[in-house]
Q: What sequence folds into this?
């Protein structure tokens, strides 16, 4: 271990491999298992009966609650034993029985950013990428290769299909079936999921409505109306939106939708009244 053992607290009933790297202030609870290729940053708490194994790097100031399993092999029949990894940033709260699997192929990783809250029984499949300040409620099952951008809020008891992309500051209602890309700044809900409107509460809390006299929010609403409430198909609406100088929110909204259409898979989630 790289840290002075006097600065690390390991419960006598924990099993920590001598090759694991634990920084100052790490606490490992009873029954926890820490494998040889695990690196844990400063002041991180590892709760009782959690399992950290495989190539796993945790940043500092994380809290891992009882029963969580991080860094284990992907649940992917294509996995052939490659030394893939899980990388987790700083200040995350990982609640009871959360599972985060390694990536599938050589040189790949599953990534979680900073200051995220993953509530109990969430699962992140192989090759997922999470940004920062995301809130995931209980029992969210995320399939492989899913991307979730910063500050998204996802309700409980739902599944997210593989390769889906969830945009920044999106709000997904509980028990929604998420099988297509979720546009940024949008509120989605339903089975299957449908765009209901902008995430007005989240946008207001972010301060967007107060900046520059609310100009950025007003433009985002206008572009959203053009995409989802006009008679234009989405691709044509995006082209028309580009006729004006787009502020950051509307620009990201349009880029996201354009990329989702170009990928040729399921594309973006439609609105409730989509034609």
A:
């Amino acid at each position: 271990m790289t840290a002075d053992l006097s600065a690390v607290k390991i419960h006598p009933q924990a099993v920590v491999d001598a090759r694991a790297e634990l920084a100052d202030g790490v606490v490992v609870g009873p029954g926890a298992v820490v494998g040889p290729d695990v690196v844990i940053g400063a002041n991180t708490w590892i709760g009782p009966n959690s399992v950290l194994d495989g190539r796993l790097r945790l940043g500092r100031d994380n809290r891992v609650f009882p029963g969580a399993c991080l860094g284990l092999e992907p649940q992917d029949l294509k996995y052939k034993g490659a030394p893939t990894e899980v990388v987790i940033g700083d200040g995350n709260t990982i609640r009871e029985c959360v599972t985060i699997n390694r990536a599938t192929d050589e040189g790949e990783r599953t990534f979680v950013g900073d200051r995220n809250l993953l509530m109990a029984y969430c699962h992140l499949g192989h090759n997922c990428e999470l940004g920062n300040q995301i809130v995931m409620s209980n029992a969210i099952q995320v399939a492989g290769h899913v991307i979730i951008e910063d500050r998204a809020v996802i309700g409980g008891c739902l599944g997210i299909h593989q390769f889906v992309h969830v945009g920044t500051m999106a709000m997904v209602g509980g028990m929604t079936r998420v099988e297509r890309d979720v546009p940024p700044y949008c509120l989605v809900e339903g089975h299957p999921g449908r765009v209901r409107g902008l995430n007005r509460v989240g946008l207001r809390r972010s301060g967007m409505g107060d900046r520059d006299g609310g100009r950025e929010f007003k433009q985002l609403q206008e572009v959203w109306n053009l995409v989802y409430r006009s008679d234009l198909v989405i691709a044509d609406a995006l082209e028309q939106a580009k006729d004006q100088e787009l502020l950051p929110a509307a620009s990201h909204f349009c880029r996201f939708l354009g990329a989702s259409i170009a990928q040729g898979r399921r594309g973006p989630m439609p609105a409730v009244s989509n034609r």
Observations:
- The helical segments are 200-206, 215-229, 234-241, 248-262.
- Residues 203-262 form one domain.
